[in-house]
Amino acid sequence: MPGGPTFQRRGIVEGFFGPPWSMRHRSALFGFGAKRGMNTYLYAPKDDPYHRERWREPYPKGEREALLRLIRAAQEHRIDFVYAFHPGKGLRFSAPEPVQVLLDKATRFYDAGVQTFAILFDDIPSRLEHEEDRKQFNGSLAKAQGLWLEKILDRQPASWKKVEWWVCPSRYTEDPLLARMFGSFEPRFWKTLAKHLPEPVACLWTGPAIVPRKISLAHARKVARQIMHPLILWDNYPVNDLSMSDEMHLAPLTGRDPRLPETVYGYLNNPLLQENLSLIPLATCFDYAAAPAAYDPEKSWKEAIQELFGKSAIPHWHAILDLCERMNRSKRSKRPVALAPGRRRALQEAHRYILKNQRERWFEEFRPWLARLEVALERAQNDLKK
After folding, report:
1. Which DSSP string corresponds to 154-216?
2. How far apart are CA 72 and CA 87, in angstroms?
């Protein structure tokens, strides 16, 4: 790739809470992303029951066949399909049976050509839940997670010489919010994990916060010194699940150090729940990942808008973006949305543009924000009458 060093792994982690994306859209995304350097897709939708809540169970025939078609679609675009297991909830790390269950299920994906797997322990209690585990691992969840990966690698078929394994530890960021949600973590969690985690296993991490505004090379290096394994950045931009479900993130990616590839092996973005609107910010994420040193956020964003909607739509989407950013700030400040001086006419034109596109898939995705746009325009009109 031009413009200096790039990430070896670039693409998507579909890892949000909420309705999983459709198979149709995932396949379309592969073509869209591959043109921009995407080479990795991590399948980890929280609300796929066979990924998380019922991870031990094989996929029913219909779901399995759909996944196999998706794997083939990824392969056609030279995108590595990474299947993720989320076994952490209630897991007995000391029991031998779950390891074999996982490998048996992984074998079905391996036979379909999957060469990379991820084990996700995110968003579970921060301490071991079972007494036998606390005894065997000296009360250390980090040790239990590292040794569980060791068991998997030791027991995988000898023929799996090219298979790559990743892990998302329970402590995936230093953000204090994580401990407030799931309980305080043991001291030196990452260093303990690193001591017991097999050497080739890559480690997922979300940056200095669960949803960081900036990620610096200095911070990545500090984390890398503790984890001491290949580092994959699970970037929670532009995702809008859970407490962010009323936000719309359409802005270009910013705040990511162009030198991150010096330390970070992979860079994956967690997308919007809205399939079609997600392509706007994701295009900029792909451009950054492919050539961080050459990345120009505004240029990348305009090029994405032009490709998706046509050059004449750029002013309208600028107005829509401005409003969405103001809505997001309004939520945080708990103040009404204030329209920028002189933006009323641009928003009126954007409103007409949106209504003209009611047959487009993105229109339905944007409908809740259209209602808020109309309220803002009405308020601005009333203010003029005062």
Report:
1. HHS-TT-TT-EEEEE-S-----HHHHHHH-PPPTTHHHHHHHHS-TT-EEEE--SSSS-S-B-
2. 25
pTM given for the model = 0.96
Number of domains in the chain: 2
**Sign for the pseudo-dihedral over CA of 340, 343, 348, 351:** negative
Q: 294 and 349 share a domain?
A: no
Q: Which domain holds residue 76?
A: 9-298
pLDDT digits (tens, 9 = 90+) for 140-152: 999 999 999 999 9
Answer for the pair 206, 172: CB distance below 8 angstroms, yes or no.
yes
For the record, the structure tokens of 287 come out as 């451009």
pLDDT over 60 (residue 191)? yes
Number of other CB atoms surrounding residue 226 within 10 Å: 16
DSSP annotation of 8 reads S
Contact at 8 Å (CB) between 107 and 56?
no
> Where do the H-state alpha helices sit in the chain?
23-34, 61-76, 97-110, 131-136, 141-155, 176-182, 189-196, 217-227, 279-290, 297-309, 314-333, 344-356, 361-385
Final residue of a structural domain among 242, 276, 298: 298
Give the pLDDT confidence of 222-281 residue by residue, as tens digits.
999 999 999 999 999 999 999 999 999 999 999 999 999 999 999 999 999 999 999 999
- Bridge partners of 266, per DSSP, are 9, 232
